Structure formats: structure tokens, C-alpha cells
Amino acid sequence: MITVLCPFGLDAGLVTKAAQLDSQVRVLLPQKEETQAARYGAAYIHTLPEGFSVADEGAFARWLKDKVLSWNSTVILAPATVQMRNIMPLLAALLQAGLTADCTGLSMEDGKLLQTRPAFGNSLMADIVTLTDIQLATVRPGTFRPAENRKTPQITQENPTFESRVQDLGFAEFETGAPLSQAKIIVSGGLGIGSKEGFEKLSRLAQKLGGAVAASRAAVDAGFAPYHCQVGITGVTVCPDLYIAVGISGAVQHLSGMSGAQKIIAVNSDPKAPIFDYADYGFVGDWETTINKLEELL
Predict the structure, then answer these.
(1) Residues paired with residue 45 on neighbouring β-strands, in sequence order
(2) Reported CATH class of domain 180-297
(3) Per-residue pLDDT tens for 111-133?
(4) Angle 168-170-175 (CA atoms, 0-180°, nearest 5)?
């Protein structure tokens, strides 16, 4: 039995993937998001009260432990958000179970969850099987693409009660606007863009396309783009309909963050750049000339 823990907001892609692995997937999520969860394949839905928040993550983990045991959950998944990255290790310790963090792929083999994630300094991808009876894994938001798989779920209202040693005074988002992980079209630049001015050009193209601008780690480290634009293992994971990679070589660290894109267009002056091995369409040549021609067509 797979359980997906989304107590602070539904991760539709993760629920979709879980439903592909288990037709009876169970989901914990905020009230009023049950319709969306059913849309993506949840068979059992447990809702939390409107306005539910967690200040004492340890106390909440103890409550979760009792719940997942009562549900006979053998695989527990959660999005790798800030709070769930704190809560899942606590839950794993309480269950004396193994946890694999920041997975980029999930599958089932012989009743066990096969978890794929970067390893050895992000130089390769490793397949991991946890040997404990209960397996836990976190998945970076945006890793899996949502797909409709409508069901008529059994819905249960949960009312968590636990003593909290911490008082929640409030929470504010660091930035406004839709997250990069939700963008349908992304124009992403690498070190080959060469300057902040080059990224301003990419940003204008992204705006014309109704999308968002992103960057590789090398470009961010060089100061060409801010960190919140970074796609890859140490940045954001995305799965847009269209990903335009401009001046990006195609290192595994970056590819792991954008491999969920439906269509990939690569622009690079190096015909041997690894990015072309993953692109649906490739343009070999000067990035600025190519982008200028593209803008003329819009």
C-alpha cells in the first residue's frame, strides 16, 4: 500500500506517479483539495481541517506514525518541500525505516520500491532499494508530470490532536508569483549566454512565449541569473511542456532537473554538447542569432 503525504498542498505529479504504481493509493492532504487528488488517481483520501498548520514537526511526525501504521502503509512518499524534508526523516526514525531523499524516479520491483536519485557528487544516477519493511522517499516537486486518472475515492476527515511545544505565529512566501516548477514553457540559459544582459534577452523571449526564464548552476554561479532561476539537482526540478535550453552543455546535474520536459529544444555552438543527446530539436550555432530569429517569428 502506497501512501502519499501532502499535508500542506497537493503534489499532483507525485499522486499521479503513485497511482501508476498502486491502484489503491492513499493520500493525506488539505481539505478542499480532495477533488484534485481524485482527478489524479487517489483511491483513499484523508483530509486535514481548513487552515491546518504545523509548528511542532516532531509532534506531527508522531501523529503520522500512528496513522500510517493503522493504514498498513508499506511505501510512504512525500514531496521534498521545506517542511516535508524536516518531517520525513523524523517519521522514518520513529518507524525505524529507510528513507531516500530527493528521488528523481520511482518504480516497483518484486514488491519493493526502486528509487532513483543522483549519487557520488551528482556524477551518476543510482537505483536504491530500502531493506526495511516500510520504505520512505521524498521527491522533488515538479519531477513527475500530472496525468488524469479519475476515481471515486473513499474520503475521510482527519482531526489531528497533539501537544505542540511551538506556537505558529505566521508564514509568508519568500517570493510572489507562480513557482518555476509550474511553468509550462521555460527558456533556460547556461554559461554560454555570457552575461546578465544575455539573460535579459532570454527573459524577454520567455515573456513573449508566456513562460519563465531559468538558468543552469554554472550561469547562476557566474552571477548571470539569480538562484531562484536555477534548474537542476541543487535548484528547481521542472516538467514544462516546452524547455528551450540555450547555451547549456547538458551536465547530468542540470539534466536531472529538466528531464521531465515534454519537448526539449537545444541551442548550442558546440555540436558535441551532451544536451543534443536529450533534445527533440537542436540548433547548432550562435545562441543570440538563433534567439533573434526566433523572436522575429513571434
Answers:
(1) 27, 155
(2) alpha beta
(3) 899 999 877 655 678 899 999 99
(4) 135
